[in-house]
Amino acid sequence: MEQLIAALGQIDYIFLIAVALRAATPIVFAALGGIFSERSGIVNIALEGMMLTSAYVSFRIAVAAGSPWIGLLGGIVAAMLVAALHAVVSIRYRTNQVVSGTVINIFAAGITGYLYRAFPTTESADYLPAVSIAGLKDLPLVGPILFDQGFLTYVMVLAVFVTWLVIFKTKWGLRTRAVGELPRAADTAGINVNRMRFYNVLISGALAGLGGAFFTLQTVSSFTPNMTSGQGFIGLAAMIFANWNPISALFASLLFTIPQALAGQFQLYNVPLPYQLLSTLPYVLTIVTLAGFMRRSTPPAAEGIPYPEDART
Fold it and tell me: Sorting pLDDT into bands at 50, 70 and 90, what band is 60?
């Protein structure tokens, strides 16, 4: 206990939050993708599969093209194609959206694992550049946290505020919320409900693609099977915890990643606390969130309910 208290006094908490923010990057991207999809009425647990697909494709294309930027673009497109599949199955064929997402997750894990073993490589992809903003990173408190991060972490922070503006301050966001809450009323007002839902699922795929590319182009320079490790599901839990609000989702994601960052600090100071215990906390928090906060959160009223094209007739 004394060693634990001593370690807590030595921890650099600014560095801790900076590490947690970096680790939260794919979780926030998944949460933002979930917000676009579910605000429009489509349950999207396929985000994990989209991220895993993007991680593999972005790595392979980055190696083949010799450019992480082309790899990033390829990963986004691949995730959007998977999102389009989920959208078509869920909207056009009115398949149960949870079943569709589950199948996509299983398929993505299987196909990327097979391709990894069938076409092995020892090459590494180039990293996306780290962005350290001179002058700003030396600011007290916020400098090391916000201005000494990787490229995709900056994109993530920007995406949080852009998503908030789009969802709550634009005509697109108003229509998105309308088709997720009262699709019949939106249809009567002349909004094509299923088209809006389809486009929003594609947006969720693009955001998931950014989250997947984070693993292979910013964290490590190679791909391993199932390397997303459930981050897409944790993102959905953060989204629910945040009540489908982008800014709240950022802070909710930090609640999941701070224990991981803390585990690294405890290892550094030889605290006699199992690293594995703290590493499992994000997954325990996911279960607790889904079990406890799902009842208290208010999802869009028409979430998961297909809207037939002939509903007005």
Answer: very high
In the DSSP assignment, the letter for residue 202 is: H
The total number of residues written for the chain in this structure: 313
Which domain does 27 fall in, by range?
2-121+143-296
pTM of this prediction?
A: 0.93
Task: For residues 160 and 70, give the distance between their C-alpha atoms in angstroms, rounded to a whole number.
Answer: 24
SS3 108: helix
> 182-234: per-residue pLDDT in tens?
999 999 999 999 999 999 999 999 999 999 999 999 999 999 999 999 999 99
- DSSP 8-state symbol, 131: E
Query: Minimal CA–CA distance to 33: which of 293, 235, 299, 254?
Result: 235
Please give the DSSP secondary-structure letter assigned to residue 299: -
Q: Is residue 310, in this structure, part of any structural domain at all?
A: no
Whether 101 maps to a domain, the answer reads yes
Number of domains in the chain: 1
Give 149's strand partners.
131
**180 in a domain, yes or no?**
yes
CATH number reported for the structural domain that contains residue 184 in this entry: 1.10.3470
**Is residue 307 in a domain?**
no
Cα 119 to Cα 63, 74, 111, 113, distances in angstroms: 13, 18, 12, 10
Which one-letter amino acid corresponds to residue 55? Answer: A
**Chain-centre distance for alpha carbon 307:** 26
